[in-house]
Design goal:
By secondary structure, this protein is an alpha/beta fold. The protein is built from eight helices and 18 strands. The protein has two domains: 4-210, 3-Layer(aba) Sandwich (Rossmann fold); 217-396, Translation factors (Elongation Factor Tu (Ef-tu), domain 3). A hairpin with a 2-residue loop joins β5 (128-135) and β6 (138-145). α1 (13-24) packs across α6 and α3 (74-90) packs antiparallel against α4.
């Protein structure tokens, strides 16, 4: 009897080719389109809305001769992704809604709907791979980077668990984007030349302050430029060994706190919670040779501190800290014990090259100390830990 796979058909080329590949592999395939957002507040005019995605998804399903279904998940999406996003920005943190969308919607709420349709597996158009290993009679699922280095999306799935991975399929994970487009064109799929979606998962490309003002109040505050580079700590060049003290770990991961007297007033903003560390645009301050970057957003005092140029020391940190309750192991059999030290490769944002780091587990949480200084570490971001091409775990950055 054929296994049934329900494909999240989004109206894009990746999920379209994923559906075709599954048919070729002998699965009984159904398509399920989910509407997660229909509010246009803050959306840039050039973006298509969900109705266009729906039309393309239906065209692909007809072309592939597979059953097509529709589900409205806008309620769970608002509660579990967008409300979380608003709450994080209000605290001055930088959430990643795409990571949350995969954990809370695509492989949770959507997976439930797929099971209602009799689906044994949930398939998506993500550029990543899945394998399995057996240890002591137990099967563990491995989340691996996609074959296309330019499109690898394993970072966005860094919060999935073993149960979610057990029924997940990633049909295009071994292909490159050009190969996917070439296949779609050969098959005559309507999505073959359609542009990739951009911006927030299922929302689109937004003007963030306008989008956030649905719930967060605008309030004027000062922009202060910090030019005194001597106020910043000097970090050790090498990665410390396991004998490092907790006090030194704290000092290597504690962000520098600025005060108004550390710089000069150069402008006004409409709310510190609309900015994130490392941000370059949206300050509307001129008169500088190099671009200005946010080095701290103090939401309590409603002050945004900025520094000029990519090499400003206020942008760079040696390490980060993740609270113990925010650590997530995809490979539960590889979870670190308190007192343990391991070397991993880590990334804190999509498309960032993997960075060498040493990870120290303590009672309070995990300290990640990088070989090289890292630019723009912000609370609320997800740090994903890799061993070769496998994502073994992740966590929300506390500081």
């Amino acid at each position: 009897m054929k296994k049934k796979a329900v494909v999240g058909l989004s109206g894009g080329v990746d999920s379209s080719v994923a559906a075709w590949l599954l048919k070729e592999q002998g699965y009984e395939v159904s398509a399920l389109f989910m509407r997660n957002w229909n509010d246009t507040t803050g959306l840039l005019q050039s973006d298509c809305h969900w109705e266009d995605d729906l039309m393309f998804a239906e065209m692909v399903a007809r072309k592939l001769d597979i059953p097509f279904h529709f589900v409205d998940l806008s309620g769970p999406y608002r509660q579990r992704v967008v409300d979380y996003m608003f709450a994080e920005y209000e605290k001055g943190r930088t959430p990643n809604p795409d990571v949350l969308c995969n954990r809370e919607i695509k492989f949770d709420s959507f997976a439930e709907e797929a099971r209602k349709l009799g689906g044994d597996f949930v398939a998506t158009g993500h550029y990543c791979r899945k394998e399995q290993v057996e240890k002591d009679g137990i099967i563990y699922y491995r989340l691996l980077a996609g074959a296309d280095d330019n499109k690898d999306q394993s970072y966005f799935l860094c919060q999935l668990n073993q149960e979610q991975l057990s029924t997940a399929l990633f049909p295009i994970g071994r292909l490159t984007k050009p190969e996917v487009r070439a296949l779609a064109e050969k098959l005559g799929l309507a999505t073959a030349t359609r542009k990739d979606s951009q911006g927030i998962c299922f929302v689109g490309k937004v003007h963030l302050p306008t989008f956030l003002q649905q719930k967060l109040e605008a309030k004027k505050g000062n922009i202060i430029e910090v030019t005194n580079h001597e106020i910043y700590p000097e970090y050790p060049v090498s990665i410390p060994g396991n004998e490092i003290s907790d006090e030194l770990l704290d000092s290597l991961t504690e962000p520098f706190r600025h005060v108004p007297s550390s710089g000069r007033l150069i402008g006004e903003h409409s709310g510190a919670h609309f900015f994130t560390i490392g941000q370059r645009k949206g300050m509307n301050v001129g008169g500088h040779k190099e671009p200005l970057f946010v080095i701290e957003n103090d939401v309590k005092s409603n002050i945004v501190y900025v520094g000029e140029g990519h090499s400003h020391p206020g942008l760079n940190r040696k390490g980060l800290f993740i609270r113990s309750d925010e650590i997530h192991w995809i490979r539960t059999d590889l979870a670190m014990a308190v007192g343990e030290c391991r070397d991993y490769q880590v990334r804190i944002r999509y498309r960032q090259p993997l960075q060498k780091a040493r990870v120290f587990m303590r009672n309070t949480g995990m300290y990640v100390i990088f070989e090289e200084l890292q630019r723009g570490i912000a609370p609320g971001q997800f740090a994903a830990f890799y061993e070769a091409d496998e994502v073994v775990g992740s966590g929300v950055i506390d500081r």
